Amino acid sequence: MTCILAKSKDRGKDKKKSKSQHIDYHEMEEVIDVNKLTSQLERAIEIMKDDFAKYLSIRSTVGAIEELSVKFEGKDYTLQELAQISRKPKLIVLNISTFPQAIPDILKSLTKNQMNLNPQQDGTTVYVPIPKVTKEHRESLSKNAKSFYTKCCSNIRDIRNKQIKTVKNKEGLAKDIIFRMENYIDILSNQYVSKAEQLLETKQKELLGDFD
Fold first, then answer.
1. Mean per-residue pLDDT for 59-75?
2. Where are the domains of the chain?
């Protein structure tokens, strides 16, 4: 996998960057709020981890569905707040008699996620067949993992670009300092891309492991 952060305009800097891939945090902290930047990058990784945990289970568990987010009357709820959830062999049953008006929103959340669900409504009851763990299903989950990774990298790139723009807009900074700050931000951002790549590789190995 290639790092997505490199830009064509940085070609001339690549050679210099390759000679110095360390960060002088003392110098960096004089110009940038490093703790804030690191927290933003960590958050991008945590969002990716959360997406993996919620949507990329080999078997669609009751727990994953219970925590599914449903937007109802302008507010966010978990599914378990709106429905009574039980499990039968190869089937999850949702009793939504308490909040029948939420059924359209619940169906929307069940169908528009990464768990490959196909809910069937019968009055105020919704039946959710648990997808078979086929090779194709595993491959589909692996592709979804890649999409979450791509989203994470996009978030990291946005954080990087905003921070570099902030540095360039600071008054009184010499060009060589701006160059070094941009270099440090690139290095730090790429470290988090590497973390995301490692998470993706681990998840894909888990999803595409020995098929039974």
1. 78
2. 24-52+135-207, 62-129
